Amino acid sequence: MTDRSSVPYRFDPDATASGLKQKYGDLEAGVETGDRVVIAGRLMLRRGQGKLVFGQLADSTGRIQLFAPADETPRFEEFGKLSLGDWIGVSGEVMTTRKGELSVKVLEWTILAETRRPFPDKWHGITDPDTRYRQRYVDLWVTDEARATLQARSKIVSLTRRWLEDRDFMEVETPVFHPVPGGALARPFTTHHNALDVEMFLRIAPELYLKRLVVGGFERVYEIARVFRNEGISPRHNPEFTMLELYQAYADWTDIMELVENLVSYLAVEITGSTTITYQEQELDLSVPWKRATMASLIEEQIGVAVGMDTPVDEMRALCDEHDVPWKDSYGVGKLMLELYEKTAEAAQWQPVFVTEYPVEVSPLARPHREIPGMTERFECIVAGRELCNAFSELLDPDDQRDRFLDQVRERDNGDEEAMAVDEDYLRALEFGLPPTGGLGIGIDRLVMLLTDAATIRDVVLFPTLRPEQEPSSGTMEASDE
Predict the structure, then answer these.
(1) Could you read off the pLDDT of 353-387 as tens digits, one per residue?
(2) How far apart, in whole angstroms, are the C-alpha atoms of residue 104 and residue 273?
(3) 282-317 pLDDT, tens digit each
(4) By C-alpha distance, which of 180, 179, 171 is closest to 247?
(5) CB 445 within 8 A of CB 461
(6) Which residues, 6+ apart, have CB-to-CB distance to 423 below 8 Å?
(7) Residues 6+ away with beta carbon under 8 Å from 11
């Protein structure tokens, strides 16, 4: 075990693995440059050949070989006994071996931190998925795909911010604790504020606060927000996730459709190099423009029966029964229509499509359709058979909004734990006047899944929510000797 007193309090590398490969990648075999560099990272591979030890140092940019000859490397025997996963700092000469491998000859070295648990090597990795997600701090070193995916996530968020700011959107921060749960149909997490002695809710969406800001005169606002929904865990759902929400004054749902397709196609090019990508071995064309289709038309494509708000409720119930769609007596035609669509048509939409014309009954915050009674100017974007975003022309009328909230309260009284409550302060804000506004929510996690070809949301979240460990782990991974 390392003497802790010998570990330096700081270390000053002046080079990285990727930087060395970029600068010296064209060196011929057997060259000693005389250039001295200082690097640091984890020792990920090690093998001894008599009076020579080869190692592989990994830092945040990549990996580079260490070349340690016994006659030039201080404490050579100790260096040869380092454990896989140990953090070390190395000062040495840039060179290439006789086989042409770019290396750093170890002329000085120091231990920066030792690993006290068996560390997996990059060849075997971590085979148990649960361990990968639970011990992400190890997974990032031994699973190159995980590191690349999560680095891509950071880039996607950064590019999104820049893209929106170039279009005059202002980033804001709104409360995480809400006195009234709202902004989406979801079951909230609850908590208690001791000083105020009130029940509060972790936000399920920042929507109502962002629209308050539009009332306040901020005409283009967005938030990349952590949101929390007390729901199940699946390949597409994590109880806490990241949502991009934005609101644009003087815009409607058609403006937001253009914004979505332009943003996503831009990100696809920046991340993958093309608007044509492969997701789970199937091709996706994200080039603009995307298809538009009504919910009713997609249902008819799948079941061969035309439906709409004028379809009698008994006929809708019969269609739901025929296609194994559960329903409740409280469901109106609009809710039955949505349930039928989600069961029969949504997953069949592989190429990107804006699904339009959602019923008022299931869209409590969306403005009524300007031409079709009973419908709203709301759309969801479906890509690869799953929802990527939800958006609409925002409801402006405070009286209509109050009626919609009261409808939601009745749904809650009928057992719907995801129904909204009445937010009196938001209604007061609407009474001060919300101009015509288009709003949008995009799931950042699902967007990253799409652009990195990730099959599950756990692959794009650094620390996904997991079941508690049954018993403390004392080292669940096997390490290689080399």
Answers:
(1) 999 999 999 999 999 999 999 999 999 999 999 99
(2) 33
(3) 999 999 999 999 999 999 999 999 999 999 999 999
(4) 171
(5) yes
(6) 180, 182, 208, 405
(7) 40, 89, 110, 112
The residue type of 381 is C
Q: What is the mean pLDDT of residues 339-361?
A: 97
Q: What is the number of alpha carbons within 13 Å of residue 135 lying toward its C-beta?
A: 24
Rounded-to-integer distance, Cα 207 and Cα 438, Å: 12
H helices present in 72-217, as ranges: 76-79, 129-134, 136-142, 144-165, 207-215
Helix/strand/coil (H, E, C) string of 321-355? HHCCCCCCCCCCHHHHHHHHHHHHCHHHCCCCEEE
124 compared with 243, residue with greater pLDDT? 243
Q: Are 412 and 112 in contact (CB under 8 A)?
A: no
Judged by DSSP in three states, 115 sits in coil
Of the candidates 338, 351, 239, the residue with the CA atom closest to the CA atom of residue 285: 351
- Name the pTM for this structure: 0.91
| Model confidence pLDDT, tens digit, residues 91-142 | 999 999 999 999 999 999 999 999 999 888 665 667 788 888 899 989 998 8
How far apart are alpha carbons 57 and 39 in whole angstroms?
Answer: 9
Instruction: List for the chain the helix, strand, coil content (%; round to 5).
Output: 30, 30, 40
Give the separation between CA 389 and CA 253, rounded to whole angstroms: 12
DSSP-H helix ranges across 232-275: 253-272
Residue partners of 281: CB distance under 8 A and separation at least 6: none
Sign of CA dihedral 286, 444, 229, 389: negative
Token readout for 207 is 């929507």
Burial (CB < 10 A; 0-12, 13-18, 19+), residue 42, is: buried
C-alpha Rg value of the chain to the nearest Å: 28
How far apart CA 221 and CA 168 sit, in angstroms, is: 9
Structure tokens at 150: 């999560």
Where do the domains of the chain lie, and which CATH numbers do they carry?
4-113 (2.40.50.140), 144-290+351-459 (3.30.930.10)
Angle subtended by helix axes 144-165 and 444-452, to nearest 10: 120
Sign of CA dihedral 445, 228, 418, 235: positive
Q: Strands, DSSP E only, in 49-157?
A: 52-59, 62-69, 87-96, 102-113
Strand partners, 198: 193
Q: Distance between CA 242 and CA 154 in Å, rounded?
A: 12
Q: Please state the φ and ψ torsions of residue 67, each to the nearest 5 degrees.
A: -120, 110
Instruction: Give the residue from 216, 204, 288, 270 showing the smallest Cα distance to 247.
Output: 216
The residue type at 324: D
Exposure string for 55-89, b = 16+ CB within 10 A, e = fewer: bbbbbeebbbbbbbeeeebeebeebbebebbbbbb
